[in-house]
Amino acid sequence: MNLTLASLGEILWVLGIVAWTVIRYPFERRARRVRVVDNRRSPSDMCGLVMAVLGMAVIPFVYLATDWPAAADYPARAWAVGAGALLFFGAVWLFRRTHKELGKNWSISLEIRDKHQLVSGGPYALIRHPMYTSFLLMALGQAFLLSNWIAGLAGLVGFAFLFFLRVDKEERMMMDSFGPTYRDYMDRTKRLIPYLY
Description:
The chain is mainly alpha-helical. Helix content is 66%, strand content 4%. The chain has six helices and two strands; from the N terminus they run αβααβααα. Strands 1-2 form a two-stranded antiparallel sheet. The N and C termini lie far apart (45 Å). This is Protein-S-isoprenylcysteine O-methyltransferase Ste14.
């Protein structure tokens, strides 16, 4: 088998998505058993989720399965595949850490669960939304691993929709639930990138 750099990038991307799915699955199962006490799902929230799934999963999978749109391909570079692998590995590691810290508080959408607690340990000690940070790292990794302008960059577009349609609403929900405690937490942390934003 003649493994090209482009093929290696694609394989690494698929392995990252498989790891992401394996990490998330048990938390989705457990979350179904914990009662939701405040549900803030909205059409814009669902739009953000759909756009994220399209950009970070559907479009890349279509590209890998059909090679469409091949006209947007460009030559893979070793440094890009290496950078993409590091970014994706970092994303999966952070994704796992966020799930572990959240435990029963985790939700796929804007929900407060029964006996919900404010999590401020682990990666949450530095940033309020480390799961979004992991998505950003995944999207950047995808851009380097998939040597196609559309499939590669679709993840960043999907991430942008998810982040900008949800993060303000999520923080409002947390303020409503935890009041001054969450305000204090906001004062000592950044949103997405430690020490910067």
